[in-house]
Each structure stands twice: as C-alpha cells, then as structure tokens.
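Submission sheet (multi-component)
Chains listed below:
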Amino acid sequence: MKTILIAVSLALLSLVAGAQDKGTGKATYEKTCALCHGAGIAGAPRFGQKAEWAERTKAGSEKLHASALNGTAKGMPAKGGSPSLSDADVKAAVDYMVAAVGGAKAEAKAETKPGAKPESKAASKVALAPAAAGADKGAGKAAYDKTCALCHGPGLAGAPKFGSKADWAPRLKAGTAKLHASALKGTPAGMPAKGGNPALSDGDVKAAVDYMLAAVGTGGQESAAAPPPAPAPAKVAAAAPVAVVPAPASPVAPPVVPLAVPAAAPRSSAAIDPNAFNRLLAAPGKRNAPPAEDGIHDPANTGTHALQPPLTALGGMNPLGAGNRVNWVSSLEAGKIKPRWDRDDPNANAVVMDLNIVREVKGSMPDVVYPHKQHTEWLDCSNCHPQIFIPQKGANQISMASIMLGQKCGVCHGKVAFPVSECRLCHSKKKDNQAPAAALAGTRP
Amino acid sequence: METNLSNRVRAALVALAGLALALALAPAPAHAEYGDVVINNHSDAAGVRPVVFPHWFHRVRFRCKVCHSDLGFKFQAGGNDINMVKIIDGQFCGACHNGNVAWSVENCDLCHSGKPGTPTQVHESTIQKLVGTNAPAAAAPAPAAKR
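Outcome: structure written.
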C-alpha cells in the first residue's frame, strides 16, 4: 500500500516538475536554441524533425544533456553559446526539443520508470495546451505586434493608442462588432483595411482588436458576460462574431491616463522647418550640441551641466556624415574605442561571425550586402534572431518603408545605428556583379 | 440644427486658436544627439524631470549586447517599464548604476535631466522626423542660439 502511494506521489511530482521544465525549456529554446535548431544551421538537428533526432535520442537523454552543456566537436557550442543559462535551463530546453519529436518516453524511461506513462501524456498535453487555449490571445498579440502596433502603439495618424482608455472610450460605444468591421474593412478616418496587411486572416484581425480592447479593460467586461471559462474570453469573442457590446458602464475617464502630449507638440517642427527630415542639412553648429543646448535637456537642472558634452568623447573618432557624425564600426576596428562585451569582464571578446548576406533588391539601387561581422562585433545573435529576422534565406520581407517606420533594420538603423540617409553603406553591391561585395561599413571613410 | 452649426463654428474657431497658439509657443526644434532617448513613462506624473538616456555615451563603453541581451532591455523607447524600484533592485539601469560599475541612484538629476513635458521617444530618429513630435511641450524658452 505504502509503496503504491509513494509511486503515485512520485509520478505526480514528476508530472508537475515536467510541466515546469517545459515552460522554461520552451523559453530557453526560443531565446537561444531556436537560432540553429529552428532552421537547422550548422548541422543542428531541426526542431520537430524526427529523422534528424532519431540517431541522437538513441544515445539517451543523459548524453544529450551532456552534449548541450559541454558542446560537441561537430559544432554545438557549450550551452548553445549562451553561458548565462543555468544547467537546468539547458536540460529543460533539450527535453523540450526531444519531446517535440516524441522522445518523451525514452527520456522518462531513463529517469523514472513509474512516471513513464503520465509524463509522456503530460508532454503531449503541455505541447497542445498553449497551442489551443492561448491561440486566440497569442494570435491577437502576434498580429498586433506585427501590424497594428506600428500606428496603434505611438498613436500615429489619429489611431487610438494601445492601452489608452481615453482614446478608446468613444470607439467602444459602437460595440465590438463595429470595431471588428472597421478593422477588417478600414475607415475613412485613416484605418486601412486589415491594418494594411492583407495577409492577415479575418480571425487574426479580430483577435488583434480583442487584444487591444483587453488592454483598455474591456476584457473584464467580456469575461463578465461569460463568467465560467474565464481564461478564454478573447476566444469566445473571436470564434463567434457576435457583438459583445460593452456593458453600459463603459470606461469613464481613467484615473491614470497615459501622459497626453500637449497640443503644441505634434508636427510643430515640421511646420517650422521644411527641411527638418533631411538631417544631412543639419547646420554644423547644431551637431553634437552640449546637453544644456540640445533642446531636450533642461538647462535649469544642475545635473545637466555635469554631463559630458558629446564632442569631448566623439571628437577624436572616425567621422561619418550622419547620425552621431561618428563611424562607430570603423572607430571600433581602429581601436579608438574599446567598449566592453561583458558588463564586468573587460577582457571578454565578441563572438564574431563572418558571413555576408546579399539581398537582391528591385529597381536600380545596388543590392544590399549585410555583413554579420560588423553586427556581431556589437550584438548577440539573439538580439536579432529569431524575433526581428527569421534566420532563413528569403523568409524576411524588408522594405525601406518598414525600415523608416522602425521595423526590421529600422529597429536600430534610424535610431542609434547609422540612419537611412547613408544609402550606400547597405546598398553596396553593383548589380552587374563587377564589383566585389567589399564596400562594407567599416571600409568607408 | 442651428445650435449644431454654431457648435461647429465654435469648434473651428477653437481649433484655429489652438493652431495659432501652437505656432506661437512652439520652441525651436530640438537638435538632440542622435539616439538620445527620452523616457517619460512616469516622470511627469511623478513631478520629476523626464529621463534622458544618451546612447552615444554608453556605446563608447559597452557593446549593444550588454544591455540589449544580457540586461534584457527591449529595443523600444519606453517599452521596458522601468521604475526606481526595479533600478534599486538591480534590474535595468540598476545592473550598473549601483555604485559598483557606474555611479549610483542618488544622483537623481544626472538621469532625470530632461525638459518637463518631453514625450517618450528616440530623438533625431527617422520616425521622429517623419511624424514630427520632437518639441518639448513646455513653453520653456529655447536656449539662445549663440553659436
């Protein structure tokens, strides 16, 4: 009797532990492992590909754990190249990948015999659960992040801002069905149909609307309408396009309204200086202004005058025609600056990857040469992959419009890295293939 | 009907007055250092100056990876929901600004040094130039250009 009890409780324990591991395993996988194991870079077995994993899972999970922790001669770096991961995280990520190719049984056998059956069940359940239950919320957030956030994030072109109750309150009165219709078909006020992204399904668009509504507190009302299945209010709304009209007590002016930008601010600079966009025309006297004169620091603040003026640091570096007026890449190569790769360790070195990606572009502009080398001097793989750029040839849609609006390359270029005015730093490969792809950022003056 | 019309006229007048006021009060355009981020998620509401984060200053000392990978800063101005509790707890800015790697949190006015009312954004960024919301909202007199 006792032994049975113990066995049952052990099985339950391993079940719980398994589920927790799956969570961290998935997170670790997405942050670190997916870069190679997603696309199968450098011979890595791809996620979910049974054939590629079969050989490896035979060796047992102990062996796989060890390979992941210590690296292998074939190319697997220790801890996937991310030493900040804990051993447990790495193991959980391995288990997550093994579970995806149905290897949960083998893994369980190696560990606890009594837990074998429930664990494999748990694995499949856990694998399915987020896909099903979280689908609509997830899809809504994904569609929002991908498409809607461009305008609804900062409130461009009169779009109601994400999370701003004041912006959304008048629209809520029309009801959710009306909002869904506006999002799908567009409005004369400026909303393009499906947010200008026809690739989205109707369900995605509705889910995104629901996601934005939930952020201004209508989620609570929806779940009040259907109380028992509390975790899936968005799903109810999306599955049946029934009008979920907000309760009569629609959100009144909220106590904490996000800071309204006073009316004087928007577009004033454009109204004053027609050349404001063309930063190449910035007058020499207005470049690298000291903090007290740069227009954003408060000269009345004593601390402002204690700050280092940019020119004292940037003056001796290699120049560039835009941005900080500094070529950061060539200044780093020339050793004019020695920025640390690690917060604490001054001797840590960047893991540099020398691989040029050529993107053929339409029109007459030269093709783009993307140098991994210069980027990996500054950044970690996980900064760009897989969130911003899917690490797979042809999988990324990039346009100058999206870059200028702060997406893809524009996440950095146009904000901190050299701006879009420096066309030829990227568009550097002549179409006729006569010039080698050598005109990289570092070689320019 | 008539009240409707007069309402509309009044609205137009108000709008015109607002526009004139905006033009009159608009300070000279800021020419902040490229990449300077103003973070004003809570500052104005809390009655302190908004934070100015100078990318260039940190870039001389650290690679992007240290903050944007190791410390978990998202690539989005104001998108990290930073507050002083987190900083004192050693998160975000507090990972270095702890008196150990860099100076500590008692130097309030070194970070909280922006003009009140300046909105959260990356200054001199392409999107700022396209949308044009870079002027500090306060009617503080622009520093005299004596260069």
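Remark: The domain at 135-239 of chain A is CATH 1.10.760.10 (Cytochrome Bc1 Complex; Chain D, domain 2).
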